Fold this protein.
Amino acid sequence: MIKSKAVVSNGQGSYQVTTVNVDQPKDDEVLVKIAAAGICHTDWDSIQTWNKNFIVGHEGAGIVQAVGDKVTKVSIGDKVILNWAIPCGECFQCNEGNLHICEKNSPVCGCGLSGHAHIESTTHENTPIERSFHLGAMSQYAVVKQAAVVKINHDISLATASIIGCGVMTGWGSVVNAAKVDAGSSVCVIGCGGVGLNAIQGAKNSGAAKIIAIDISQARIDQAKEFGATHGIIAEKDDTDFINVKEKVKALTAGRGADYAFECTAIPALGSAPLALIRNAGTAVQVSGIEQRIDFDCELFEWDKIYINPLYGMCNPERDFTKVLDLYTKGDLKLDELVTKTYKLEDVAQGFDDLLNGRIAKGVIVMDDI
């Protein structure tokens, strides 16, 4: 049993840094000493709405401390990135190649099937406690399935590596895996926070000729251009139908609209916005995971437009994390530059405040001893 500081929430808006007890790993489990954990909007949403006790955090990287008897993919001392969409490799979706929506292990697949796995390795005040997305990355130690870790064979800081397992993968993968953006195409990215910047990078890596960043902040537009945007459009807060933005996009795309548009804001009022910006037979992608009910004007779908809502950039962790790390190593993907600020575990409240007020692209909690 290991004592570990962790961020624990009641799922009703409250959270605290406290001590939990973590067991040794069993069978196909891995004990990871967490070095760094990313701070994500999803973490904040879970704190507000999950209505149960849990350890917060689903982005992380660390070092393997112990392994169960059936673990074969990593060894003690390996550096790893955590992956929250844990594939079982056996269910219908895994066999279809959709590892990110595994019917057995995914905490968000919505398949309605029973048997979703939970590791009961951690207790808080003598009571078993869940780990967010089977990870609970805002903790000094975590026990996870071996399928939830990807070994790092690249020269990268663990603070930077920690954000690959959600913020980077969601934006980059939505462009590369889900939309399959063509070289020479035109792309709009709505919202230039952490996820949007990675969508921009994915478009650049795909060879898009015109990448149009859209945001209400000139500072974010300027930053987006550093990450690969070729043009920037300032949106007005009250133009939720994107009437003005649409005209500016058309002016940049021969009057017809963009080939692809990606919504990266998580603002329900903008759920249909990418449809307004694409040409006929273009592709609109809702990247941010809006879950509220949205009313669509069906005329926005005319004609032959495609609207998709991929999860987690359709991530295949062993394949995609390696691709991302290779691009980083070659200098074709900015990751260090995404980490605007780091925090101690005890300063997580400041991290959330900076996130919610748009002061950072990406914040990372760095544990005391690295």
User: Anything to note?
Assistant: The chain has ten helices and 19 strands. The CA atoms of residues 98 and 314 lie 7 Å apart. Residues 112-117 have pLDDT under 50 and may be disordered.
